[in-house]
Amino acid sequence: MPLPTLTARDRRTLRLAGLGLGAYLLLFCGWTTLQFLGQRRTAYRQLQREATDEKTRLELYNSRVVRLHRLMDAAQMDPAQLSKPRLVARASAAIQQAAMQGGLQMGPIRETLSRGTERELGTIQLDAAGQVTSLTTFLHRLGSLGFQLILDTVQFSSDPMRPGLIKISVVLILLDYEQWDTREVPNA
To answer: Which residues of 39-49 are buried (b: 16+ CB within 10 A; e: fewer)?
Structure first.
C-alpha cells in the first residue's frame, strides 16, 4: 500500500507537533539534568567544606607540634628520654626555681622516688620562708610548672628568728600518668 502524500497543512502540523514534543522533552530532560547537577554541586561544596575543616584541623595540629618543639628546645627536654629519677630531679629544680623567683628563702629539699608498683613517680618535701604574698604566689605557680603535681601537705608556721617571715613546709607528689588507668572511676 502506497503512502499517502502529505499536504502542506499536514506537514506544518507535523513540524509544529515535532517542535512541541522536542521542546517538552528538552524542558523535561533539562529540568532533570539541572536537578542532578544541583545535587552534584551541593555534594561538591559539602566535600570542599569538609576538606577545608580538615585542613584547618591539620594546621592547628601542626602549630601545636611546632609550639611543643619550641617548648622542648627552650626547656632542653625530650620526654622520650626522661627516666623517673631524672623527671623527679627536673620537677624539684623547677619548684626551686619558682620559689627563688618568687623571693622565697629555700631550706632543705628532700626527694624520694616511689616504688614501681605505686602510681606516683616520687615525693618532694621542701621548706621555705618568705612574705605571705611570696608564699601564695609560689603555691599558685606550682600548677603551671609543667609537671603533674599534687599538693599533699602544707604547713605554715612563724619564724621567731626572722620577724615578718612565714615558714612553709610542703610535701608534693609527682604523678606517673603511665600507671593510671583512664577507665578507672575513683571511689566507685
So the answer is: eeeeeeeeeee
User: For the whole model, what pTM was predicted?
Assistant: 0.51
Neighbours of 97 (CB within 10 A): 12
Closest CA to 124 of 188, 86, 171: 171
Label residue 101 by pLDDT band (50, 70, 90): confident
Mean pLDDT, the chain, rounded, equals: 83
Max Cα-Cα span within the chain: 136
Tell the burial category of 91 from Cβ atoms under 10 Å away from its Cβ (0-12, 13-18, 19+).
buried
Q: Is 169 exposed, middle or buried (0-12, 13-18, 19+ CB in 10 A)?
A: middle
Rounded to whole angstroms, the Cα distance separating 104 from 134 reads 6
Cα separation values, 126 from 12, 72, 110, 181, Å: 108, 27, 6, 29
Length of the chain: 188
Rounded Cα distance between 29 and 42, Å, is: 20
Average pLDDT, integer, range 109-136: 80
> How confident is the model over 20-35, as pLDDT tens digits?
999 988 888 888 888 9
